[in-house]
Amino acid sequence: MFDYNPCLDETLRLKPAVIAGGYRQTPPGGLWFDERFAPSDTTVFVPAQLIQTDGRYWPPARVFIPERFSSKSNDLSPPCLPFTLGRQACSGKNLAWISMRSTLSKIAQHFDLSFGPGENGEYFDTEALDLLYDGGDPARGAAR
Ligand code: HEM
């Protein structure tokens, strides 16, 4: 039987539904993020897609390789957090997984999919924009 889970995991790594996790405020005293300091009460967010497509953690980062998720461990690294982590993480995660599995399996059973004329998937992959951010500077959480 075909295991859809690694395909969904890998899709959520490359194209997370929530590109950048929810906003948070830094605690009193502020927080260090590597070499950057954010003072207390600063609004910050985790750029999930940027982290999940960082070649340091996921080489080759932009390539769709579901097998990366075939053998799951409890190890939290390399980072993949499409539902974010901790207390404010997605409370609909289990329902989302059921829904994704059943949708994908229905599509696979009932449709033959192919790219439309003139499409090869590249445009969607390279030109899709995250409208929340203006692109370009990874330190600013750009989507590309
Ligand atoms: C693939 C599907 C989904 C993804 C990738 C996703 C992702 C996320 C993420 C990243 C957050 C955290 C936002 C933050 O950090 O503030 C979140 C929160 C939340 N999600 Fe989802 N979600 C999905 C589906 C669902 C579904 C199906 C439901 C409910 C039916 C749901 C309900 C919620 C709720 C209630 C929260 C807020 C949790 C809280 O603040 O305590 N999500 N989701």
From TrEMBL:
Report the transmembrane regions from the record: none
Q: Which UniProt keywords apply?
A: Heme, Iron, Metal-binding
- InterPro entries under this entry? Cyt_P450, Cyt_P450_E_grp-I, Cyt_P450_sf, Cytochrome_P450_monoxygenase
Q: Does the keyword Disulfide bond apply?
A: no
Please tell me whether the keyword Cytoplasm is annotated for this protein. Answer: no
PANTHER family associated with the record: CYTOCHROME P450, P450, PUTATIVE (EUROFUNG)-RELATED
Q: What is this protein called?
A: Cytochrome P450
* Naturally occurring in which organism (per UniProt): Apiospora saccharicola
Lineage here is: Eukaryota, Fungi, Dikarya, Ascomycota, Pezizomycotina
